[in-house]
Amino acid sequence: MPTKVILFFALFIFIAAMPKDAYQLYNKEGKTTTYEQLLKQAADADIVLFGELHNNPICHWLQLELTSELFEKVGKNLTLGAEMFETDNQLLLNEYLNGLISRKSFEEEARLWKNYTTDYKPLVEFAKTNQLPFIATNIPRRYASAVFNNGIEHLQQLSPQAQQFIAPVPFEIDITLPGYQAMLQMGGHGTANSQNMPKAQAAKDATMAHFILQNWKKGKLFVHFNGAYHSNHYEGIVWYLKKQNPNLRIITISSVEQSDINSLLPDNLQLADFIICTPEKMTKTH
Fold first, then answer.
1. Domains of the chain, with CATH numbers?
2. Given a cut of 70, is residue 82 above it in pLDDT?
3. pTM here?
């Protein structure tokens, strides 16, 4: 067999055998960085907002890895919280974490997301095993739906008992923020519901920020898990956190998918302090 043919086949076999990276980590400028750098900066923060793609397995794996290694560094100074749990389910969550109710009772009654078992249960069980607080931060969906249907003013008509589950009303909404403007464009301008879409989003962001701060103390570390769009471009939750406490040290993480993860696309720059880039073909959890 000619030498060139042998070399060609050898090169082909070498390329085929090369490992495929599951993700690449970037900083906001699009320069590659390391998980070790993320861990270091996260451990020094007051609040870490881990913005995920809800069905991406790499996001969920890294969430558990980061939580575990942060616990090794800060111990009981760690508090977890998540968009995936609504504030009126905090009692159920606390009862389960403290061993007062069964796993079955908790999982049947807590209005869990359909991917809870694969994606969020490991985080809850980690908190339970290590006796860490886990905070339900999201506005109950019935109230977000009410804002979408009736406007933000509708929240002020709720009873005092209901209002304890949302950010104190009335709260400021800056509808000019690019993220909210994008939602307006996506929903169109023709109906009241489309106009209320970013307001419902703001109600979620404000409520999550409120319950994060309500459960954070100086010297502690709060790690919050949310959809990336709730903290991308330092808007959403970040905006509300900074409005209440401009001195907070906040580290944001975002997640994107690309056909090629070897360089970050221009549209994905400046999303967050750290950006997890995974292949578009990555398998989904649901």
1. 24-142+198-279 (3.40.50.11550)
2. yes
3. 0.92
